[in-house]
Amino acid sequence: MESVLGFISPKILSQILVGLSRTVILFIVSSGLSLILGVLRIPNVAHGSLYMIGAFMAYTVSHLFGGGNMGFWMALVLAPLGVAVVSFAAERSLFQFLYEREHLMLLLLTFAMSLVFGDLVKMVWGGEYRSVPVPSIFQGYINLFGGLPFPIYSFFLLVVGPVIAILLWLLTNKTKIGKISRAAAVDREMVGAVGINVSWVFATVFIIGCLLAGLGGVLVAPTVSVTLGMDHTLIMEAFLIVIMGGLGNVWGALLGSLIFGLTQSLGILVWPQFGIVFPYLAVVVVLLFRPTGLLRSTW
Amino acid sequence: MKRYSFLALASVLLLSVLCVYSVSQAANTIKVGIVDTYTGPATTFTNDVLDGFKLAVQKINASGGILGRKIEYTTRDEKFKPDIGLAMAKELVLKEKVDILMGTINSATTLAISDFVRKEKIPFFVTFAKSDKIVAEKGHRYIFNMNENTEMAGRAAAIALAKKPYVKYWIAGDDYEYGHAIAEGVWDNLKKLKPSVQKVGETWWKVGEADFTPYITQILAAKPDFIIVATGGSGMVNFQKAAKATGLSQKVPFYQHTATELSVLAPQGQNAPEGVYGTANYFFYYPDTAQNKAFVADFKKAYNRNPRIGALYGYMTAQFIAEGYKKAGKIDKEKFVTALEGMSLDSPVGKLEIRKCDHQLLLPMYFGVTKKDAKYEFLTASGIETIQGKDYVPSCEEVLKHRKK
Amino acid sequence: MKNPLLRGKLPWVIAALIVLFLLPVFLDRFYVYLAAIILLTGLSATSLNFVLGYGGVFQFHHAVFYGIGAYGTALMIIKSNLSPWLGFIVGPVVAGILGFVIGVICIRLSKLYFGMLQISLGSLVWAIVYRWYSFTGGDDGIHGVPLPDIISSPNGAYYFTLIVTAVSMFILYRMIRSPFGSALQGIRDNPVRSEMIGVNVKLQQLLALTIAGFFGGVAGSLFVVVDNTVFPDMMFWTLSLELIIMCLLGGWFSFLGPMVGAGIIVLLRTYVSGLTVYWALILGIIMMLVIFFLPNGVLGYLDRFVKKKARS
């Protein structure tokens, strides 16, 4: 606690900035989950597995291209596409038969899928730690506010985050497919009745959601060790964020991620040992006052 | 749909029946049951243990086995869950009737199994769990610790750090038993050896934390001389990456137990941070003795990769099992245990002894700092200081004092 | 009170109990241990199904009650100088109270939101137990819990588990068959209508959650008897999901479904793990098969099968 006295405002500001870069990964993954839950009404527990597959694919692609800068950029493009392909296969073979089922069944089914994916990753990549290096333009750090280092890669993330947010918002609100999917989320039959192939609309939304998970995995890969078990660490947080923010709401996912990321990084200043409790408390508080989430959900 | 339902049910039942059929084993073997985690981030270490063990077993069986019997082993995946680990240990002992148990990387499981084997009187070799309770508080006749524990690692590090000029220390790490134990082990012993050291602060993050930047900025603001970083598992690489990204490794030196190990440095390649202090039990490139080179060559030939610390644990466990029975002269559990007490064998890192009073294997500890190496794609440990096992292990009295409780 | 369905099944139940009592006579020690594990896990799953299957409540983090019951019992035995038998009462009572408290907080939400909030709160409890090393042993857990002599032997532990489980199952069964249970199922099927005919929906659910928590705690304290240890993992969300899977597999519209599901999962896990490292894969595939082809679980399927035969 004595450390709080030593802190002056710039440090809090830098702590906020730092919390934001963590938020970006959370946001990208959660927005995908929110889309799938909001539009397709599927609580996709396998979302974490797709995030992990994205990270592992990033390793493989980056390795294929020599592991340096080229490797990273190729991974950034190809790995999410790889995840999209996997999810397309899963959607066509399994998920498309599930859109009318009850939630609990869907939850268990996606959990089963996450078990399968987890072991498949173990079979394909084995148990070793993998690593994707940060591309050289993003290596190093900038000194903020008097000597506190902020990695350049985190700045990159801070740019990517809002870009994705805006792109998603444009997609869901300004494009035809976005509007159709939001309508279909509310009333599937009606949309089908006006002659739109709802099945393909849902498939598209599902793939975009999964692609976001994979993208999150690729973006996080240079900052952590890519290991088995990555799927479990993120999925609970992603669900809590989605619930906090409002289902199917992209800005809700952003808001939820911000709350999550910031309460953690600021919580560390207040009570270093229990910093991790603050995000969970935030979830509890939010749900008690706004049971359906902070922003409007699609159902 | 009805037909499919029936088919599905039938196949589930068939699967269950097939599973009940357990593979029958030849009599007249020495059965070793291995409970360990082969799922999740710990797998990278436990695969090494198994491979090292297998390598030794092949050799032993090829030269006639132990007292005419071959060693046979079977593994069970506890998935890092202690209740499953304990159930599997019980299955191995009560159903598969193994002679010896080996495992696990999970300290909680190890302690639970330890309790069980004490009642059942089955020798149990601990291969990666590092809780100091294993030989101290919860130690007994049938348990053998084949790797270092947190108290030992802490002492070794303290011996090396006490020689350095740093005074203001910050302690940080993963918020679980292992993290706290390592940190305490290092700090308590350092304070004893060098009373002038001061602790300026502490930080604990959740296990599996991926983003250390907020913690690093907080630590840097306090301007310590040195940081003791108590991470484990994947936290090792995560922290080193964050240290590199924020330039921490250039600003404030820090220490992690196993920072210099291959499993931590190899995945990062040339991008690992330099100047990180670490303690480790094994390097394939040091010491450059004939024994070590032979071991490395054998391992590489069999598994196409360099051996890491787990391989040494597994390899030596097999050797001790073989020699223990040989010295006992017959397949007798009690004679086996007695034979092992105080036994000393040759190994890739020199002579290793299982201490009689607490059954702790006395491994050498290497204190070094990470540095780029022209010979390899990854960083290696340089400036290695070797601390012999007997110099950093707590005395018999200290250990046994815990047991009397 | 005269329940025609029960009359038909009673001889089967008695026969099963006799077989279970004689188990240690003709089975090896390991299988007796396994049977004890199945019984207590089945009880845990049944207590979950009390609110999940019969109440329609999204109880996503039932393992908290199981874990707290275990910790309550273990800590009571170790830390206090009172009779260890008291531990077996304290554990479940604490679990029941926790069930009530968490229920009160979560009750205003429904379905998915209820489940997520329960997970958040449950995770907070887990985090506290995990971090409070000095009191709970942290992630090392507590080992070697001393038990009264009668129940410390493997057979003793088994019989104690059998008796407690049988009694608990009986109590739960009676509650399901009582007006309370009917009201609960009515709320599951149509909460609005139930409200209209005068049922206090929230109160009913709260009571059900307390009861479910209590019996979850009983199962947890039985674990202490059988294995003499507790770990924080016992209240981790993955175990909660496993319990739900057991209910699904066995059939959540039948009373014995969860017990059957527990039996299948424990047996499969024990044997499959001996054959392959990829237990998660196999479990996942089995789950998917069950969800697609046997949505009412094994017992649900058998029930339909039997009814069809009866009709033809």
How would you describe this structure to a colleague?
The complex is a heterotrimer of chains A (299), B (405) and C (312). Chain A is mainly α. Chain A has one domain (12-228). Helices cover 72% and strands 3% of the residues of chain A. Chain A has helices at residues 2-5, 9-39, 47-64, 69-93, 103-125, 152-174, 176-186, 188-193, 198-220, 230-245, 250-270, 277-289; strands at residues 141-144, 148-151. In chain A, strands 1-2 form a two-stranded antiparallel sheet. In chain A, helix 4 runs antiparallel to helix 9. Chain A is globular. With 405 residues, chain B is an alpha/beta fold. Residues 1-6 and 19-25 of chain B have low confidence and may be disordered. Chain B has helices at residues 2-20, 43-62, 82-95, 107-120, 150-162, 177-193, 213-222, 234-245, 248-251, 262-265, 290-303, 309-328, 333-340, 389-392, 396-403; strands at 29-36, 70-77, 100-103, 124-126, 143-145, 168-174, 198-205, 226-230, 254-257, 277-280, 344-347, 350-354, 361-362, 365-371, 380-387. In chain B, the strands form 3 sheets. Chain B has a 7-stranded mixed sheet, sandwiched between helices. Chain B has a 5-stranded parallel sheet with strand order 2-1-3-4-5, sandwiched between helices. In chain B, strands 11-12-13 form a 3-stranded antiparallel sheet, covered by helices on one side. The relative contact order of chain B is 0.12. Chain B is globular. Chain B has 2 domains: 18-149 and 289-364 and 394-404, Rossmann fold, CATH 3.40.50; 152-285 and 365-392, 3-Layer(aba) Sandwich (Rossmann fold). Chain C has one domain (4-236). Chain C is globular and about 55 Å long. In chain C, helix 2 packs across helix 12 and helix 8 (154-177) crosses helix 9 (179-189). Chain C has 312 residues and is mainly α. At the A-B interface, helix 2, strand 2 and helix 11 of A face helix 2, strand 7, helix 7 and helix 8 of B.
